[in-house]
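User: Structure please.
Assistant: Input sequence and predicted structure:
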Amino acid sequence: MFSPICGRTSTNTGSAICCAFLASHHGAGDTMGRRARQAVLWKGATMAWDEEVAERLREGLMGVPEVSERRMFGGICFMIRGNMACVASGRGGAFFRVGKAREAEALALPGTARMVMGGAEKAGFIHVDRGTLEEEDIFDGLMRLCLSFVEPMPAK
């Protein structure tokens, strides 16, 4: 059964019922609020990443050619010609790929830390929380470092 609310096709009627339930409580179709629409996913689960963080990253990448988005790491990953650039993390905040050579420069910015995944720190990846992303100078600095590392990479 196709659900126009979450756009999924399923033979599991529970999923369609859940989507229909959420639609009846949040409005339906075009009248459904943006936040409610974003929250309605498969089996009524909430979105794994913060859409406002993802939108902030989209704005920072505006004008950069060949940007694509892919669900990855429990969040939404922004790729430039197939190379990972930055991610709206499913654990909150975002991380930027700046490379090992520029990592010290990125870590000198307030509110930044090495990304931790699977209990281990990942060199070359910088994590920031949502509040830090709202600081223009920090966001611009991280995006500049990220783009200077990823843009020269060959396409995958």
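The CA atoms of residues 67 and 80 lie 5 Å apart.
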